[in-house]
Amino acid sequence: MPWQIFAVFAAIVLVATYMGVLPKGMIGAFPFMIVVGAVLNEIGNRCPIVNTYLGGGAIVIIFGMATLCYYHLIPDATVKIVTNFMKGEGFLDFYIAALICGSILGMNRDLLIRAAIRYLPAIVGGVAVAIGLAGLVGELTGYGAKQAILYIAVPIMGGGMGAGAVPLSKIFGETLAQKPEDIINIMIPAVALGNAMAIVAGGLLSKLGKSFPCLTGNGDLLITKGADDAIQADEEFLKKRDAISLTVMGVGLLLATAFFAWGRIVAFFIPKIHSYAWMIISVAVVKALGILPQYYEICCYQWFQFVMKNLTAVLLAGIGVAYTDLGQIISAFSGQYLLLVGVTVFGAIIGSGLVGRLVGFYPVESAITAGLCMANMGGTGDVAVLSAAHRMELMPFAQISSRIGGAFMLILASVLLQII
């Protein structure tokens, strides 16, 4: 869109915002998030250092929106509209459902099966090195190994707030005979800072891959060469997949939201596993067994492409408003605390990258998905990290880290409390 035309419509939206007449619901949230997200995205992508090392538009949108909220430069009414749209009306779920279905169903079937089998060791490698480094540095700096592991490393690697810090605080509270709210107040800064560092690290890993091409698959997780070329998608499938059709995208919208509903159904009967995890498992099983005709796989893929290309900046703007508390991040700033958070995220990168390479993954993609997507804040962090790394197609593996990996961390935390 020419900037002159954009400026006219942006002015309309901003005038409505500051007059207090921005409509409630998605009809008000969408234009505000589109306009501000587009401006911040353009700024981030044009800033030399930011766009090269820090993830470009993604990180500027999130922290730019968080800064505007922190200094009350966005009207409270608009903040409520955006927050309700993201949380109450489920826009984040809507976005992630499209990405999960399209990413998985658009993959080569054999590639998906081979990658999934090797993925858990990469997660375990990242967690082990992250916890080990945090404990070592905590002991050396006088913070305490136990304190560093339980209150910094475990929450960071635990899958975010709702699926990580909140249940962890309950587990810790019951085991240590403390109030869960006291525990969670200690964990929140670690989770927030870890998420911020993971986003920045995503951009840095993207830059690393450009500097050392041998370390990255440019969005492909699994290393394939020689005889493995046979498992790549055939040209006919790729042509069908990339031939855009409005009807096809409409069908993809239905299937993505239906799969999300199916995940909720299964989670109702087996609540210990998150509905996202059930959705991932279900879509992966459907893909692996070839249950869904190719036409419907293409429908989901095209819908995923539409959402990813048109709504990512919108979603990141919402994350900055509804999920990023700049005050919590600022309050935690101290040299020792930042060091421990940093070594935890660094350990996640190193462990998952090295183990991933051993099992046949590209180190950069393995570090991003099995490492950083364990260290970020769940679904919102996955979107931000992958966007900063320019690897949104890795969302299925990122979600495995956040959901299934997060559940693994709850079990690990219970064990650690008994032995350290």
Can you give a write-up of this model?
- By secondary structure, the protein is an all-alpha fold.
- It has two domains: 3-88, no CATH class; 91-419, no CATH class.
- Helices cover 80% and strands 0% of the residues.
- It is built from 19 helices and no strands.
- The chain is globular and about 60 Å long.
Secondary-structure topology with pairs:
Blueprint: H1 3-19, H2 26-46, H3 48-53, H4 57-70, H5 76-88, H6 91-105, H7 109-140, H8 145-156, H9 161-176, H10 180-211, H11 235-242, H12 246-269, H13 275-289, H14 294-322, H15 326-331, H16 335-358, H17 363-375, H18 378-389, H19 395-419
Helix pairs in contact: 1-2, 2-4, 2-5, 2-14, 4-14, 4-18, 5-14, 6-12, 6-13, 6-14, 7-8, 7-16, 7-17, 8-10, 8-16, 9-10, 9-19, 10-16, 10-17, 10-18, 11-14, 12-13, 12-14, 16-17, 17-18, 17-19, 18-19
Q: List segments where confidence is low: pLDDT < 50 over at least 5 consecutive residues.
A: 226-231
Percent helix range: over 70%
Could you report the average pLDDT, rounded to the nearest whole number? 87
Quaternary class: single chain
Distance between the first and last residues' Cα: 58 Å
- What gross morphology would you assign? globular
